[in-house]
Write a structure and sequence with these properties.
single chain; 139 residues; alpha+beta; two-stranded antiparallel ribbon; 4 helices; 35% helix; 12% strand
Length: 139
């Protein structure tokens, strides 16, 4: 059943087929697809043509591409680890991989297998390798 009282907002540029029941969606479409109807924030670095609809997009671009206004996360493990990253999650991964810090180890009780990943490795090891070898329990 169609409601004839619904007003559709249709894009008329370049024979686009975009339409929406909300004027705001058409405005966003025009701004992102046709670069009209709105303010754009541009990267201020020489010869860079990057632009974004929100200032946060330019800020992330500058940090990722031009290393401007970057919050660095340095590794603090002594004696002299010089690793640093722009993302906190990468620092955690580095500490686990390079220094074995904040790692939970899983030890197989049937063999010498050890893993720091329960989901990916340890549980599969138990099921595929050691579980078939465990003695059966008789009632």
């Amino acid at each position: 059943m169609h409601d004839s009282s619904v007003r559709w907002y249709t894009c008329t540029e370049l024979n686009r087929s975009f339409k929406s029941k909300q004027a705001g969606h058409l405005k966003t479409h025009k701004a992102t697809v046709h670069e009209g109807d709105g303010n754009w924030f541009s990267c201020s670095e020489p010869d860079c043509v990057f632009k974004a609809k929100q200032f946060g997009g330019v800020k992330r671009h500058k940090a990722a591409i031009h290393n401007i206004e970057v919050k660095w996360y340095p590794c603090t493990v002594p004696p002299s680890c010089d690793f640093r990253t722009k993302q906190a999650s990468n620092l955690i991964s580095h500490k686990v991989a390079a220094h074995g810090i904040d790692v939970t180890w899983y030890y197989c009780s049937s063999c010498d297998y050890v893993s720091n990943s329960f989901q990916s490795y340890f549980s599969k090891h138990i099921i595929l390798s050691c579980f078939p070898k465990l003695p059966s329990i008789k009632n």
